[in-house]
Prior knowledge:
It is built from nine helices and eleven strands. The chain is α/β, with parallel strands linked by helices and 254 residues long.
Amino acid sequence: MNTARPLIELRQVSVRYGDVTALSQVDMALRPRQITTLVGPNGAGKSTLARVVLGIVSPSEGTVSKEPSLRIGYMPQRIKLDDSLPLTVDRFLWLGQPSNKAARKAVLKRVGVRHLRKRSVHQLSGGEWQRVLLARALLRSPDVLVLDEPAQGVDVSGQDALYGLLKEVRDEIGCAILLISHDLHFVMAATDEVICLQQHICCSGTPDVVQRNPAYLALFPPQTQGNLALYQHHHDHHHHPEGDACAMEDTHDN
């Protein structure tokens, strides 16, 4: 059990929009080196809870405590860009977090897509785009990473590679990671704590405990889960952005 002091802690947080309750009495702690995953059906309040963590939404009730000078990196579910706007990956990173060229090259290399630095963002595949979004979040040197559906538009092998990469990032920089997902196949294997949300917290704990909880099974019956992948990702190889294994890292400096 991770007993480190929380970087962000929510106590009895509720959020209401008029007569609609989006969140009800939620307690949650994000700790260094811990990956926490929010799962729940559409409309369960996952995005609202993320916005509370990010400071975009203020609770109607309850408190949110944050460590001083906390840096948060955010990987959104989607970003709408004008298709007619000429924009390279490098420029996109700079617009999101002004930084020097060396830092941008380094973070792209870390997520495995340095060779895409001068590529138009409009030419990226789903897996490449997700890694660029992750690089953008990492440029902030975050204490907490918040990722909303990070594997959206990525195939199965790419999801495996992406979640493995997130574990590596957590281990290297010691950040807390909050994942938001409704896709259970890989996300459950890539997390330390699962929180099952349906406006309130139905259940929480390690993946193997949560997947047997009656409240979890009521929201996600076994027949809807497919082949749930509860395993550890071990890296004795590298991945291309789409997840294909390769023997060595791309060293092109575009």
